[in-house]
Amino acid sequence: MGACAKPAPTPPPGPNVVTITATDYAFGLPDTLPAGLTEFHLVNHGAEVHHAAMVRVTGDHRPEEVAQALEQVPPPDWVAMVPGPNQAAPHDSSNTTVILEPGNYLLICFIPSPDGMPHFMKGMTRAFTVTGTVPADAALPEADVMLTLADYEFRLSTPLTAGTHTIRVENAGPQLHEVGIERLADGKTLADYQAWMAQPQGPPPVRPMGGVIGPAPGAPAATFTITLTPGHYLLTCYVPDAGDRRPHVAHGMVQEIEIM
Ligand SMILES: [Cu+2]
């Protein structure tokens, strides 16, 4: 480069791509990650559905304490929900991109086994540490769809269409929420799903496709990417209600969408 050449503008740094492996019932990921823009891929090698709830924890707390703390509105200040990749089907994956702040973190899987016991009670938790500082220019990828979570609804900025989308997720609160995207089996409807939820018999009429657990109300947003093909899908939130502890789907936080 000649002495007079102007320096080329520095492109924004890409995300640190981190794979979280899920098995029945454990997480694998590096012990230490750098602060900043991070694209998590949850890869499920297990036989059950898993997700990776990500919690920043100050002090020493057992996973059961963390789970109880997250259900409080507002939660105690030693716990902060950070968006993480939601339900990945066996032999499938899900993703979430987030700006990671330094601190101590815990991954937790709240999904229950067929025996009703949540996976974290079977040991599915994993601690990791985030070190360094967030670069000043760290920014989430550009999204083509905004999704706002609220008590008890999903608000999409624009209808979802076939193809690959980057969806930005925010929580208007007041409670903690998540978004799961689940594909309805051919010919199945929201009513079939609700009947199965009330009395699970046989295989579920939906297949998990990913989504994001969190963010907490007012916390920084996250993005995820998903490729949709024509069919019927549900948006779901299973966070236990702060009032009656029933999952938010039972409070109407489930929405059917059709992809043409
Ligand atoms: Cu799990």
Structural overview:
The protein is mainly β and 260 residues long. It is 7% helix and 42% strand. Strands 3-10-9-5-6 form a 5-stranded mixed β-sheet, with helices on one face. The longest helix is centred in the C-terminal third of the chain and has 9 residues, at 190-198. The protein is globular, with a radius of gyration of 19 Å.
List its traits.
260 residues; 5-stranded mixed beta sheet; binds copper (II) ion; mainly beta
Name of the CATH first level? Mainly Beta
In spatial order, strands of the major sheet run 3-10-9-5-6
Cα(first) to Cα(last) distance is 51 Å
CATH topological fold name: Immunoglobulin-like
Second CATH tier, the architecture:
Sandwich
Estimated helix fraction: under 10%
Give the low-pLDDT segments: none
Q: Give the helix tally.
A: 2
Overall geometry comes to globular
Estimate what percentage of residues fall within beta strands: 35-45%
What is bound: which ligands? copper (II) ion
**How many structurally independent domains?**
1
H and E order: EEEEEHEEEEEEEEEHEEEE
Mean pLDDT comes to 93
Radius of gyration: 19 Å
- Beta-strand segment tally: 18
Quickly give the structural class. mainly beta
Any idea what the CATH superfamily is called?
A: Cupredoxins -  blue copper proteins
Largest sheet: 5 strands, mixed
Brief overview, please?
By secondary structure, this protein is mostly beta strands. It has helices spanning 63-70, 190-198, and strands at residues 16-23, 26-28, 32-34, 36-44, 53-57, 79-82, 84-85, 93-100, 103-108, 125-131, 145-150, 153-156, 163-173, 178-184, 206-213, 222-228, 231-236, 254-259. The protein has one domain: Cupredoxins -  blue copper proteins (Immunoglobulin-like), CATH 2.60.40.
